[in-house]
Amino acid sequence: MIYIVVLVVTLIFGIHFYRKSKRQSIQPFPWHWRKLLTDNVLYYRKLSKDRKITFEQRMMEFLSEVYIDGVQIELEELDKILIAASAVIPVFGFNEWHYTNLSGILLYPDNFNEDMQFSAQDDSRNIGGIVGNGRFEKQMILSKKALYHGFNNTTDKNNTAIHEFVHLIDKLDDNVDGVPERLLEHQYTIPWLNLIHKEMEAINDNKSDIRKYGGTNQAEFFAVASEYFFERPDLLKRKHPELYKMLVKCFNQARPSLKKND
Ligand SMILES: [Zn+2]
Question: Number of folded domains in the chain?
Fold first, then answer.
Protein backbone atom coordinates (compact mmCIF):
# COMPACT_ATOMS: atom_id res chain seq x y z
CA MET A 1 0.00 0.00 0.00
CA ILE A 2 2.74 2.42 1.04
CA TYR A 3 4.48 1.79 -2.30
CA ILE A 4 1.35 2.82 -4.16
CA VAL A 5 1.09 6.03 -2.11
CA VAL A 6 4.76 6.82 -2.79
CA LEU A 7 4.26 6.10 -6.48
CA VAL A 8 1.20 8.33 -6.73
CA VAL A 9 2.90 11.17 -4.85
CA THR A 10 5.99 10.85 -7.08
CA LEU A 11 3.80 10.93 -10.16
CA ILE A 12 1.92 14.02 -9.02
CA PHE A 13 5.17 15.83 -8.28
CA GLY A 14 6.63 14.62 -11.55
CA ILE A 15 3.71 16.01 -13.55
CA HIS A 16 3.81 19.25 -11.59
CA PHE A 17 7.50 19.80 -12.28
CA TYR A 18 7.17 18.69 -15.89
CA ARG A 19 4.43 21.26 -16.43
CA LYS A 20 6.45 23.89 -14.64
CA SER A 21 9.54 23.18 -16.71
CA LYS A 22 7.41 23.35 -19.87
CA ARG A 23 6.11 26.74 -18.82
CA GLN A 24 9.62 27.91 -18.16
CA SER A 25 10.63 27.07 -21.69
CA ILE A 26 8.99 30.34 -22.73
CA GLN A 27 11.97 32.53 -23.54
CA PRO A 28 12.17 36.09 -22.27
CA PHE A 29 11.36 38.74 -24.86
CA PRO A 30 14.64 39.90 -26.43
CA TRP A 31 14.84 43.61 -25.66
CA HIS A 32 16.15 44.56 -29.09
CA TRP A 33 12.98 43.13 -30.68
CA ARG A 34 11.08 46.10 -29.31
CA LYS A 35 12.52 48.40 -31.93
CA LEU A 36 11.85 45.93 -34.73
CA LEU A 37 8.25 45.55 -33.54
CA THR A 38 7.77 49.30 -33.22
CA ASP A 39 9.21 49.94 -36.69
CA ASN A 40 7.24 47.23 -38.43
CA VAL A 41 3.97 46.52 -36.64
CA LEU A 42 1.49 49.39 -36.54
CA TYR A 43 -0.92 47.44 -34.33
CA TYR A 44 1.77 47.13 -31.65
CA ARG A 45 2.78 50.77 -31.98
CA LYS A 46 -0.77 51.80 -31.12
CA LEU A 47 -0.92 49.83 -27.87
CA SER A 48 -0.48 51.37 -24.44
CA LYS A 49 2.78 50.69 -22.60
CA ASP A 50 1.21 47.96 -20.47
CA ARG A 51 -0.50 46.28 -23.37
CA LYS A 52 2.77 46.31 -25.32
CA ILE A 53 4.40 44.24 -22.59
CA THR A 54 1.47 41.81 -22.61
CA PHE A 55 1.71 41.61 -26.40
CA GLU A 56 5.42 40.77 -26.17
CA GLN A 57 4.74 38.02 -23.64
CA ARG A 58 2.01 36.56 -25.79
CA MET A 59 4.40 36.49 -28.75
CA MET A 60 6.95 34.54 -26.73
CA GLU A 61 4.26 32.14 -25.57
CA PHE A 62 3.28 31.53 -29.17
CA LEU A 63 6.89 31.00 -30.23
CA SER A 64 7.36 28.43 -27.46
CA GLU A 65 4.38 26.42 -28.75
CA VAL A 66 4.90 26.51 -32.53
CA TYR A 67 8.06 25.87 -34.55
CA ILE A 68 8.97 28.00 -37.55
CA ASP A 69 11.20 26.64 -40.31
CA GLY A 70 12.61 28.46 -43.29
CA VAL A 71 12.48 26.53 -46.55
CA GLN A 72 15.58 27.41 -48.57
CA ILE A 73 16.00 30.53 -46.50
CA GLU A 74 17.78 31.29 -43.26
CA LEU A 75 15.21 32.52 -40.74
CA GLU A 76 15.73 36.10 -39.64
CA GLU A 77 14.56 37.60 -36.37
CA LEU A 78 12.08 39.85 -38.13
CA ASP A 79 10.49 36.78 -39.78
CA LYS A 80 9.72 35.33 -36.36
CA ILE A 81 8.55 38.67 -35.01
CA LEU A 82 6.11 39.27 -37.86
CA ILE A 83 4.75 35.72 -37.70
CA ALA A 84 4.27 35.83 -33.93
CA ALA A 85 2.64 39.27 -34.16
CA SER A 86 0.23 37.97 -36.82
CA ALA A 87 -0.70 35.11 -34.52
CA VAL A 88 -1.30 37.31 -31.48
CA ILE A 89 -3.18 40.20 -33.15
CA PRO A 90 -6.47 38.36 -33.87
CA VAL A 91 -6.63 36.74 -30.42
CA PHE A 92 -5.29 39.62 -28.34
CA GLY A 93 -8.80 40.29 -27.04
CA PHE A 94 -8.68 37.03 -25.13
CA ASN A 95 -6.55 36.58 -22.05
CA GLU A 96 -5.29 33.22 -23.12
CA TRP A 97 -5.12 31.52 -26.46
CA HIS A 98 -3.46 28.41 -27.82
CA TYR A 99 -3.53 27.49 -31.48
CA THR A 100 -4.11 23.84 -30.71
CA ASN A 101 -4.56 23.10 -34.42
CA LEU A 102 -1.13 24.38 -35.39
CA SER A 103 2.23 22.78 -34.73
CA GLY A 104 4.48 24.49 -37.22
CA ILE A 105 4.94 27.10 -39.90
CA LEU A 106 7.04 26.77 -43.03
CA LEU A 107 8.29 30.03 -44.43
CA TYR A 108 8.87 30.00 -48.19
CA PRO A 109 10.91 32.77 -49.79
CA ASP A 110 8.20 33.71 -52.29
CA ASN A 111 4.64 32.95 -53.32
CA PHE A 112 3.90 29.40 -54.40
CA ASN A 113 1.43 27.41 -56.47
CA GLU A 114 -1.17 24.82 -55.45
CA ASP A 115 1.44 22.06 -55.38
CA MET A 116 3.40 24.08 -52.80
CA GLN A 117 6.06 24.76 -55.44
CA PHE A 118 7.69 28.14 -55.33
CA SER A 119 10.34 27.63 -57.96
CA ALA A 120 7.87 27.30 -60.82
CA GLN A 121 8.17 30.19 -63.22
CA ASP A 122 4.54 30.39 -64.18
CA ASP A 123 1.54 32.47 -63.27
CA SER A 124 0.14 29.78 -60.97
CA ARG A 125 2.62 30.91 -58.32
CA ASN A 126 0.25 33.31 -56.63
CA ILE A 127 -0.46 31.87 -53.19
CA GLY A 128 0.96 33.81 -50.28
CA GLY A 129 -0.28 31.62 -47.47
CA ILE A 130 -2.15 28.44 -46.78
CA VAL A 131 -3.43 26.44 -43.82
CA GLY A 132 -2.54 22.84 -44.51
CA ASN A 133 -4.76 19.80 -44.85
CA GLY A 134 -3.92 16.11 -45.11
CA ARG A 135 -0.16 15.71 -45.29
CA PHE A 136 0.19 19.30 -44.16
CA GLU A 137 -2.37 19.07 -41.33
CA LYS A 138 -1.47 21.37 -38.41
CA GLN A 139 0.93 23.26 -40.63
CA MET A 140 0.80 26.67 -42.16
CA ILE A 141 2.82 27.72 -45.14
CA LEU A 142 3.59 31.37 -45.62
CA SER A 143 5.46 33.27 -48.26
CA LYS A 144 8.01 35.63 -46.79
CA LYS A 145 7.27 38.13 -49.52
CA ALA A 146 3.55 38.14 -48.64
CA LEU A 147 4.29 38.23 -44.90
CA TYR A 148 6.39 41.37 -45.24
CA HIS A 149 4.05 43.01 -47.70
CA GLY A 150 1.21 42.62 -45.20
CA PHE A 151 3.05 44.75 -42.66
CA ASN A 152 4.83 47.18 -45.02
CA ASN A 153 1.65 48.37 -46.62
CA THR A 154 -0.66 49.52 -43.86
CA THR A 155 -3.33 51.08 -46.07
CA ASP A 156 -4.27 48.30 -48.48
CA LYS A 157 -6.49 46.29 -46.03
CA ASN A 158 -4.46 43.16 -46.79
CA ASN A 159 -2.40 41.02 -44.47
CA THR A 160 -1.75 37.45 -45.60
CA ALA A 161 -0.45 36.09 -42.30
CA ILE A 162 -3.38 37.48 -40.29
CA HIS A 163 -5.69 36.01 -42.95
CA GLU A 164 -4.23 32.53 -42.38
CA PHE A 165 -4.43 32.78 -38.59
CA VAL A 166 -8.09 33.77 -38.91
CA HIS A 167 -8.65 30.59 -40.96
CA LEU A 168 -7.08 28.62 -38.10
CA ILE A 169 -9.41 30.28 -35.59
CA ASP A 170 -12.34 29.45 -37.86
CA LYS A 171 -11.04 25.86 -38.12
CA LEU A 172 -11.00 25.27 -34.36
CA ASP A 173 -14.60 24.04 -34.46
CA ASP A 174 -13.61 21.66 -37.29
CA ASN A 175 -15.49 23.63 -39.94
CA VAL A 176 -13.77 26.30 -41.98
CA ASP A 177 -17.06 27.96 -42.80
CA GLY A 178 -16.63 31.59 -41.83
CA VAL A 179 -18.55 30.98 -38.61
CA PRO A 180 -16.08 30.87 -35.74
CA GLU A 181 -18.16 29.10 -33.07
CA ARG A 182 -15.33 29.55 -30.60
CA LEU A 183 -15.64 33.34 -30.86
CA LEU A 184 -19.25 34.00 -31.67
CA GLU A 185 -21.99 33.19 -29.22
CA HIS A 186 -24.65 30.97 -30.68
CA GLN A 187 -27.32 33.67 -30.80
CA TYR A 188 -25.19 35.68 -33.25
CA THR A 189 -24.81 32.90 -35.81
CA ILE A 190 -27.88 33.76 -37.89
CA PRO A 191 -27.33 37.56 -37.87
CA TRP A 192 -23.69 36.90 -38.75
CA LEU A 193 -24.60 34.66 -41.67
CA ASN A 194 -27.15 37.18 -42.94
CA LEU A 195 -24.57 39.92 -42.75
CA ILE A 196 -21.91 37.80 -44.50
CA HIS A 197 -24.27 36.98 -47.34
CA LYS A 198 -25.32 40.59 -47.79
CA GLU A 199 -21.69 41.75 -47.89
CA MET A 200 -20.64 38.92 -50.23
CA GLU A 201 -23.41 39.82 -52.61
CA ALA A 202 -22.20 43.41 -52.68
CA ILE A 203 -18.66 42.20 -53.43
CA ASN A 204 -19.86 39.98 -56.26
CA ASP A 205 -21.96 42.84 -57.67
CA ASN A 206 -18.85 45.04 -57.67
CA LYS A 207 -20.45 47.32 -55.10
CA SER A 208 -18.01 46.85 -52.28
CA ASP A 209 -14.53 48.02 -51.35
CA ILE A 210 -13.88 44.67 -49.65
CA ARG A 211 -11.34 42.63 -51.58
CA LYS A 212 -12.94 40.58 -54.36
CA TYR A 213 -11.53 37.34 -52.97
CA GLY A 214 -13.89 37.72 -50.01
CA GLY A 215 -16.76 36.90 -52.37
CA THR A 216 -15.39 33.37 -52.97
CA ASN A 217 -17.09 31.73 -49.98
CA GLN A 218 -18.01 32.38 -46.32
CA ALA A 219 -14.62 31.31 -44.97
CA GLU A 220 -12.72 33.61 -47.33
CA PHE A 221 -15.13 36.41 -46.56
CA PHE A 222 -14.45 36.06 -42.83
CA ALA A 223 -10.66 36.01 -43.37
CA VAL A 224 -10.66 38.92 -45.84
CA ALA A 225 -13.00 41.06 -43.70
CA SER A 226 -10.78 40.36 -40.68
CA GLU A 227 -7.69 41.57 -42.56
CA TYR A 228 -9.59 44.77 -43.29
CA PHE A 229 -10.64 45.02 -39.63
CA PHE A 230 -7.09 44.72 -38.33
CA GLU A 231 -5.45 46.85 -41.02
CA ARG A 232 -7.97 49.69 -41.52
CA PRO A 233 -10.42 49.60 -38.60
CA ASP A 234 -11.32 53.28 -38.97
CA LEU A 235 -12.24 52.86 -42.62
CA LEU A 236 -14.20 49.64 -41.99
CA LYS A 237 -16.14 51.34 -39.20
CA ARG A 238 -17.09 54.16 -41.54
CA LYS A 239 -17.92 52.06 -44.60
CA HIS A 240 -19.35 48.93 -42.99
CA PRO A 241 -20.52 49.88 -39.48
CA GLU A 242 -22.55 46.70 -38.99
CA LEU A 243 -19.70 44.43 -40.02
CA TYR A 244 -17.29 46.40 -37.86
CA LYS A 245 -19.56 45.99 -34.85
CA MET A 246 -19.85 42.28 -35.40
CA LEU A 247 -16.07 41.84 -35.71
CA VAL A 248 -15.51 43.83 -32.51
CA LYS A 249 -17.81 41.36 -30.76
CA CYS A 250 -16.16 38.41 -32.44
CA PHE A 251 -12.54 39.29 -31.69
CA ASN A 252 -13.44 40.92 -28.39
CA GLN A 253 -11.41 44.00 -29.20
CA ALA A 254 -12.35 47.48 -30.29
CA ARG A 255 -9.75 48.84 -32.64
CA PRO A 256 -8.27 52.25 -31.99
CA SER A 257 -8.27 54.66 -34.86
CA LEU A 258 -5.10 54.24 -36.90
CA LYS A 259 -4.07 57.39 -38.63
CA LYS A 260 -2.26 57.14 -41.93
CA ASN A 261 0.68 59.26 -40.93
CA ASP A 262 1.45 57.28 -37.77
ZN1 LIG B 1 -8.04 32.18 -47.36
Answer: 2
